[in-house]
């Protein structure tokens, strides 16, 4: 059969255009000319590095080394910024320790990448991270990696071998799709799921043994593997759509009580002796099968097994079966059996020669099974009591489950166990606990709630939905709502005492700690509302002279604080004068403050700056410009909370000093460095006082402007520009220089 494959590829434009314009009308080169020339050197001569997004990229001889922390993403773009080529030139990659994730499509299209070294700090490799790395020969996924995304190594057509670390339990969809050279895959851990099309079109894969740990194989996982000899575990059954599933997805934990089975055997044989019948031997095989059947009764109290077959399928030796369940003693269970005609007939059957007795306990409930055989025991058996996990082969969807508790409120760093319950199908009065290992567990918000094997841990404030999905591929999904209630532990205030003028309003601005408290809301209460009232938003209103205390309390009860408010003849406002629109670096100016109303005896003020590195202010209101940027200067009355005034001052670079020298049809400027300047703009005119036009923008201290008219007189002026965030702040012009070109 021929199969036509549809390939998905990214369109990758890999053309590098080098545009270098050099006008030989003098000896000057553009500022970036040297960089462009250096990028044309052969690889053996190159060694460059770039910092981007917290990562350091170093390229040498075709090998890319990446250092940093967090997620590594968009490597191709980072390479382009080094000015040393493109993804196609990289043949080897070394990712150093500290990086925790390879981002989606991080190395997609690195067509000549033949080797990759991954660190032990790595925990995830995301979707299509190495898609179409067509020269990659082998790969080892570290044991630290717990997550692989869709198509991580898809269409790595030269990939011959892969080692999957012990942390990976799920192979995602299309992991190795169209890896046509793949011959060997080794698993260091317990893989439980193989996703759809995982090995699709791996045409060189000669043999593959699906590990016994695998519970589910997705559709077409090995489609198009023309040379493949595939070995599946006996526990996996075909679903008829190209997928396989382990019927036995329900894991039950409990205790196997061999001692009680022995006690029951003695009671049976005592009764048989009374009836003149030979004693039954405990058949070793039937003993273990009876223990398994007893565990099956925990989810379905019936002679029909959970997989839909009759009890007799447990062993070819079995003739009849007795079952029981409850919290009764061994003697009481035996008495119930021997008092029932059907059960008594099985116990006293004259043809029966051997027996297997199972007793499986979960909590106070015990599940009992007697398997009778008309064959003599080939080998007698016994055992020691102990805990056991029994995987039960059950029909998907036949046994609905629920969480014992599906709504949780946790305090920070606290943990809890989610318990899954199954109501017994054969006896609704019985309920079994299902092992958390039956499910895949996930959290919708891992910053708030982490989950591992059913154990939830409060990681940070917030909400999350925790989902449990059956590992065997069934549709059953259980959900729990978890809220992490991080309480407020402290309330901070700017001042413990606030003074207000009569009739003024003032909004309190408390800060709660920690900042991620789940409920940061606060309540406010005044001890004397007739003096100072306060609303639910913390707005104070001074009603009459006097003193009141405002109590601020977190609604979660975690913190409480008080502030003293005094109402009197205090200043109500401040007027500032002498405020400049701009200041140049090194400039100083004194701001004048008038405290209102006039005649108040409380005239003291405090000065502050939002950023002292840009503009500092002293106690006398003298502002000193430090570096380009914007800063807010605030004047606050020492008495009178509402008497406050703020102004924003823009600091620009100072006017530059420079020297202009005439040359042959050119002029050269040498600029004295200006503090905080990121570039200089040169303007030219043929008139001393007007008509100036931008001639050059440069980051260099030396600038040559050519193409000028011979013998012509030019006037030149320069100003510097600093940077505030993404904005450029242009400074004042330096003095105009007169130059006559030669």
UniProtKB/TrEMBL annotation:
The keyword Signal appears for this protein: yes
Matching SMART domains: BID_2 (SM00635)
Signal peptide extent: 1-33
Transmembrane annotation, as ranges: none
Domain called Fibronectin type-III: residue spans: 652-742
UniProtKB keywords: Signal
Protein name: Leucine-rich repeat protein
């Amino acid at each position: 059969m021929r199969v036509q494959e549809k390939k998905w590829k990214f369109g990758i434009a890999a053309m590098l255009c080098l545009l270098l314009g050099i006008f030989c009308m003098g000896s000057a080169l553009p500022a970036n000319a040297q960089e462009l020339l250096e990028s044309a050197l052969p690889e053996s001569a190159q060694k460059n590095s770039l910092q981007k997004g917290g990562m350091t990229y170093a390229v040498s001889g075709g090998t890319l080394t990446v250092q940093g922390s967090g997620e590594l993403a968009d490597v191709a773009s980072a390479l382009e910024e080094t000015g040393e080529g493109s993804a196609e030139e990289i043949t080897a990659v070394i990712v150093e320790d500290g990086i925790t994730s390879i981002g989606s499509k991080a190395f997609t299209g690195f067509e000549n990448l033949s080797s990759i070294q991954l660190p032990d700090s790595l925990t995830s490799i995301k979707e299509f991270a190495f898609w179409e790395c067509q020269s990659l020969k082998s790969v080892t996924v570290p044991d630290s990696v717990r997550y692989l995304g869709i198509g991580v190594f898809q269409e790595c057509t030269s990939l011959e071998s892969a080692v999957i670390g012990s942390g990976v339990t799920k192979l995602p969809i299309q992991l190795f799709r169209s890896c046509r050279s793949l011959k060997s895959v080794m698993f260091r851990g317990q893989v439980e799921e193989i996703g759809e099309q995982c090995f699709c079109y791996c045409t060189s894969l000669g043999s593959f043994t699906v590990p016994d740990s695998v519970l589910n194989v997705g559709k077409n996982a090995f489609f198009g593997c023309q040379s493949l000899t595939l070995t599946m575990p006996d526990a996996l059954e075909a679903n008829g759509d190209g997928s396989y599933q382990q019927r036995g997805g329900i894991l039950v934990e409990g205790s196997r009580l061999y001692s009680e089975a022995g006690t029951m055997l003695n009671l049976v044989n005592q009764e048989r002796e009374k009836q003149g019948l030979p004693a039954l031997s405990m058949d070793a095989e039937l003993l273990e099968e009876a223990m398994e059947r007893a565990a099956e009764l925990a989810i379905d109290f019936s002679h029909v097994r959970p997989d839909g077959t009759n009890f007799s399928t447990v062993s070819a030796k079995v003739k009849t079966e007795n079952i029981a369940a409850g919290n009764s003693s061994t003697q009481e269970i035996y008495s119930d059996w021997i008092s029932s005609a059907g059960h008594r007939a099985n116990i006293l059957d004259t043809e029966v020669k051997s027996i297997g007795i199972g007793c499986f306990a979960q909590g106070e409930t015990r599940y009992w099974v007697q398997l009778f055989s008309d064959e003599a025991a080939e080998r007698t058996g016994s055992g020691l009591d102990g805990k056991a996990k029994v995987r039960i082969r059950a029909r998907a969807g036949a046994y609905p489950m629920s969480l014992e508790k599906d709504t949780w409120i946790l305090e920070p760093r606290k943990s809890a166990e989610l318990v899954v319950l199954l109501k017994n199908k054969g006896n609704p009065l019985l309920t079994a606990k299902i092992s958390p290992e039956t499910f895949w567990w996930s959290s919708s918000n891992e910053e708030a709630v982490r989950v591992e094997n059913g154990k939830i841990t409060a990681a940070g404030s917030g909400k999350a939905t925790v989902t449990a999905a059956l590992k065997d591929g069934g549709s059953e999904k259980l959900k729990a709502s978890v809220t992490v209630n991080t309480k407020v532990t402290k309330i901070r205030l700017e001042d413990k005492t606030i003074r207000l003028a009569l009739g003024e309003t003032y909004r309190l601005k408390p800060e709660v700690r920690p900042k991620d408290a789940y409920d940061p809301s606060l309540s406010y209460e005044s001890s004397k509302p007739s003096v100072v009232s306060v609303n639910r938003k913390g707005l104070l209103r001074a009603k009459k002279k006097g003193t009141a205390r405002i109590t601020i309390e977190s609604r979660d009860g975690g913190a409480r604080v008080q502030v003293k408010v005094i109402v009197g003849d205090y200043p109500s406002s401040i007027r500032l004068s002498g405020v400049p629109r701009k200041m140049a670096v090194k400039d100083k100016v004194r701001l004048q403050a008038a405290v209102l109303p006039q005649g108040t005896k409380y005239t003291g003020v405090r000065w502050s700056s939002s950023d002292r590195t840009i503009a500092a202010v002293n106690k006398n209101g003298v502002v000193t410009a430090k570096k380009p940027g914007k800063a807010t200067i605030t004047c606050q009355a020492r008495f009178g909370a509402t008497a406050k005034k703020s102004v924003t001052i823009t600091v620009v670079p100072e006017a530059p000093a420079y020297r202009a020298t005439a040359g042959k049809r050119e002029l050269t400027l040498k600029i004295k460095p200006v503090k905080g300047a990121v570039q200089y703009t040169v303007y030219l005119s043929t008139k001393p006082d007007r008509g100036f036009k931008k001639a050059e923008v440069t980051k260099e201290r030396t600038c040559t402007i050519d193409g000028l008219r011979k013998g012509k007189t030019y006037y030149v002026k320069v100003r510097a520009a600093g940077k505030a965030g993404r904005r450029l702040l242009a400074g004042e012009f330096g003095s105009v220089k007169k130059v006559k070109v030669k």
